[in-house]
């Protein structure tokens, strides 16, 4: 009985290994949670996963911090992050879907070099772009400006998004578009009414990727924004830790607050990550 | 409905000629089938009529309009694709009414047309389903429904039955024939299946290597093929071909292991045309085993028997050519030496290279 299954010992070993892997993966997260709810600011790495005292003090500290002029920073910085990430997502999706569709469906001079250049641009480390982008933003008077960040994030996310979306568009049968053309649809109608609804999973992933690019990015934001009220949340977080110590508790509480929107977004987008959208369309 | 005309139409993909100088007139309300092997240019021809493929040279007319440069949506045609091409995210109803909504038809008329098409095809109780909830046959019906609601001048069918199983194919074939009768539509239908072509078409267009080989009624292409390609492509099993020499004196055709007496008038025609060698075509149905040892024909050993119940096909070799004969029963066993006779009135004679019909 159960000759094809693993033995009891094998099962125990596999489960033990998996449980260990989960603990290793989860420990940093649990540690951050413990620190955030401890009410303390010192790093106190203990094995016990819950705090000695439960307090929301660190969250209060993070969300009520003020500038010297008395302006509460958190709402401003949250607003900055939301605007940057949302606009990056919307702008990025608009550019990436249209570009990817054109690269997938139309044949025009420069198509292959364009795809190749997108790929090449991904091979350089992001920090290499820092100085040229800084100069460009300076010339455009977009330093310390959310629009500058939005432009930079959208355009740097585009190559990956275009490649991913193009790969997906390539799998949508051409017959569907030809059928729509005969039905009387213009290229724009085909794109919005046929292609985009079918590319929902790829667009959801692209949206998540773009949002996370805008939401989590630190280096560019820290370089281009030099006023505290212009910071995005990742830059604000960094202010809580310094070379010789820091407010680790507030930093942990801030990290949790910063993570929540991404988790929520993933939760709402995951229902679009479904397979079989094309089922029934053409004979497989 | 409307007449469709192809006038000196060419299609080239780079250096490759897909369609060569096609000339064809499809009459109003006619059901024409383009048939040929893969790569013969039949689908390309259909796509040029649809406007999905630009023509390299020539003129295409639908009704009295030259449509060379018209967008597919402006040609007033509807097309049924080989693999259905249904919009998977829309319900059957939305698939059917998509084109009407785009053309801004009144809501009431859209509903009426959708219901009428659905009723014709027997899919009225599936209107709220998605394509993935339908069987292959039902999907094909929806694809046809999408064409019917448009009430177009010309229906184009691109191998619509090739994805269906054999039984469903026969059923859908009948439905398409009925549809044509009821709608009185001009239909251009592409298939590689000669049975579909023979059963559906009012006229068949046989194509090979981008060229139209013959245009004629099913009866014409079957009984008077213009060359050996048409002769062997139309009809199942395929027409037998034998090389033969024309006797200079007697009205006799002879080859390795056989000689047949032919009609004197035909013999005279061959001689006057200076043909000394010919390719002889015999349909399996006209080549049969016989018990009469004196019957005109030849003896051969049966290599293989294909029993089909009430009848069977016998496979054998004669002078290096593989032949098929038709037997009314299946009593002849493999390896039996058998006398075969043929109906010389049903012989098809072609030039030695098979490109011309001689009689």
Give the strand order, joined by hyphens, for the main sheet of chain A.
Answer: 1-2
For the record, what CATH class of the largest domain in chain A applies? Mainly Alpha
Overall radius of gyration of chain B: 24 Å
Total count of strands of chain A: 2
Q: Major sheet of chain B, described briefly?
A: 6 strands, mixed
- The total of helices of chain B stands at 9
Q: Please mark out the parts of chain B with pLDDT under 50 across 5 or more consecutive residues, or reply none.
A: none
Q: Biggest interface, and residues per chain? A: A-B, 23 and 32 residues
Q: Provide the gyration radius of chain A in Å.
A: 24 Å
Overall pLDDT of chain A, averaged? 88
What is the CATH superfamily classification of the largest domain in chain A? MetI-like
- End-to-end distance of chain B: 38 Å
Structural class, from secondary structure content of chain A?
A: mainly alpha
The multimeric state of the shown protein is heterodimer
Q: What is the 3D form of chain B?
A: elongated
Share of β-strand residues of chain A: under 5%
Give me the number of helical elements of chain A: 12
């Amino acid at each position: 009985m159960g000759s094809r299954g693993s033995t009891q010992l094998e099962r125990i070993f596999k489960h033990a290994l998996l449980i260990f892997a989960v603990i290793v993966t989860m420990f940093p997260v649990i540690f951050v949670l413990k620190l955030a709810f401890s009410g303390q600011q010192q790093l106190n790495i203990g094995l016990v996963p819950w705090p000695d005292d439960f307090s929301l003090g660190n969250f209060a500290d993070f969300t009520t911090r003020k500038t010297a002029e008395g302006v509460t920073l958190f709402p401003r910085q949250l607003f900055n992050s939301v605007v940057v990430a949302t606009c990056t997502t919307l702008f990025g999706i608009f550019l990436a879907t249209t570009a990817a569709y054109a690269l997938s469906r139309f044949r025009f001079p420069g198509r292959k070099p364009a795809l190749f250049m997108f790929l090449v641009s991904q091979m350089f480390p992001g920090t290499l772009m820092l100085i040229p982008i800084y100069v460009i933003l300076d010339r455009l008077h977009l330093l310390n400006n959310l629009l500058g960040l939005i432009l930079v994030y959208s355009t740097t996310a585009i190559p990956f998004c275009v490649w991913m979306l193009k790969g997906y568009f390539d799998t949508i049968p051409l017959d569907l578009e030809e059928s729509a053309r005969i039905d009387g649809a213009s290229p724009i109608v085909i794109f919005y009414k046929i292609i985009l609804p079918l590319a929902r999973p790829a667009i959801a992933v692209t949206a998540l990727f773009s949002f996370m690019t805008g939401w989590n990015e630190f280096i560019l934001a820290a370089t281009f924004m030099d006023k505290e009220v212009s910071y995005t949340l990742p830059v604000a977080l960094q202010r809580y830790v310094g070379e010789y110590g820091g407010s680790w508790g507030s930093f942990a509480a801030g990290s949790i607050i910063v993570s929540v929107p991404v988790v929520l977004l993933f939760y709402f987008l995951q229902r679009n990550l479904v397979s079989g959208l094309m089922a029934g369309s053409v004979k497989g | 409905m409307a007449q469709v005309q192809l006038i000196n139409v060419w299609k080239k993909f780079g250096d490759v000629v897909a369609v060569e100088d096609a000339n064809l007139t499809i009459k109003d309300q006619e059901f024409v089938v383009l048939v040929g092997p893969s790569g013969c240019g039949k689908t390309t021809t259909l796509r040029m009529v649809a406007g999905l493929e630009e023509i390299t040279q020539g003129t295409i007319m639908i009704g009295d309009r030259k449509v060379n440069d018209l967008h597919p949506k402006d040609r007033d045609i509807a097309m049924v694709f080989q693999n259905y091409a249904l919009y998977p995210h829309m319900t059957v109803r939305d698939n059917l009414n998509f084109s009407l909504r785009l053309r801004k038809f009144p809501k009431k008329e859209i509903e009426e047309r959708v219901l009428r098409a659905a009723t014709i095809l027997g899919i009225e109780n599936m209107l709220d389903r998605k394509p993935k909830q339908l069987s292959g046959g039902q999907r094909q019906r929806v694809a046809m429904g999408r064409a019917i609601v448009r009430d177009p001048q010309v229906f184009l069918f691109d191998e619509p039955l090739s994805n269906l199983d054999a039984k469903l194919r026969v059923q859908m074939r009948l439905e398409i024939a009925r549809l044509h009768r009821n709608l009185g539509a001009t239909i251009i239908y592409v298939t590689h299946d000669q049975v579909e072509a023979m059963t559906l078409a009012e006229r068949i267009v046989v194509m090979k290597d981008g060229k139209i080989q013959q245009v004629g009624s099913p009866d014409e292409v079957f009984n008077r093929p213009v060359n050996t390609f048409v002769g062997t492509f139309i009809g199942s099993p395929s027409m037998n071909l034998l090389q033969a020499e024309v006797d200079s004196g007697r009205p006799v055709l002879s080859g390795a292991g056989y000689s047949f007496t032919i009609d004197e008038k035909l013999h005279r025609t061959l001689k006057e045309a200076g043909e000394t060698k010919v390719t002889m075509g015999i349909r399996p149905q006209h080549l049969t085993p016989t018990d009469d040892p004196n019957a005109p024909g030849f003896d051969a050993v049966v290599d293989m028997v294909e029993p089909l119940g009430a009848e069977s096909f016998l496979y054998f070799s004669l002078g290096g050519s593989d032949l098929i004969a038709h037997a009314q029963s299946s009593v002849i066993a493999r390896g039996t030496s058998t006398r075969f006779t043929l109906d010389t009135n049903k012989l098809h004679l072609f030039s030695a290279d098979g490109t011309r019909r001689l009689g």
